[in-house]
Amino acid sequence: MPPADDADRPASTPVAAPVDELDVDALRARILDVPNFPSAGVLFRDVTPMLADAEAFGRCIDALAAPWQDAGVEAVCGIESRGFIFGAALARRLEVGFVPLRKPGKLPPPLVEVEYALEYGRDRLQARSGILDGGLRTLIVDDVLATGGTLAAAHELVTRLGGLTVGAGVVIELSALGGRARWPRELPLRALLDY
């Protein structure tokens, strides 16, 4: 299980996965900085070069999996769309099932849905009804933690689906945006890289 002291940490304190300095540098070298994308003034962190490098991608999945090996995870939920890539690979590594959390219009009914606020507007996440019934111990995965709204909505959706969130893992945390503060303090949140 993740260390018990995670529940006592302040919401703004990063909890890093066990990745040695060489791995962090190697992973960071595979993240491409794209200025002014998708709009002016935004610095986009593109994980595509890391995904294209089998060794770097494997190290990333190993590092994401390490804190959860003995946590009793029974399912991994990945958030559309890049969370699918990391979540499915992580589920395979942990030898559990993968549940995609989708944007509207992608899944047939019956569905469970959560609506959440974005910086400019609202969005929704959906999943198949009954897919986490019985309180499956669920890990939520995404590529980036920014403002935290999507990750918080994913936690709410897991709860509505009947699952029990055990924590979350992200590849990149944009800590200046304060997204960690929106995550429940009692649940571990692991970030591999902090920008």
Automatic annotation (TrEMBL):
InterPro entries according to UniProt: Ade_phspho_trans, PRTase-like, PRTase_dom, UPRTase/APRTase
Localization per Swiss-Prot or TrEMBL: Cytoplasm
The entry's keywords: Cytoplasm, Glycosyltransferase, Purine salvage, Transferase
Domain of life, source organism: Bacteria
Annotated Phosphoribosyltransferase domain residues: 74-173
SUPFAM superfamilies in alphabetical order: PRTase-like
Pathway involvement of the protein, from the record: Purine metabolism; AMP biosynthesis via salvage pathway; AMP from adenine: step 1/1
Cited HAMAP family: Aden_phosphoribosyltr (MF_00004)
Protein name: Adenine phosphoribosyltransferase
Lineage: Bacteria, Pseudomonadati, Pseudomonadota, Gammaproteobacteria, Lysobacterales
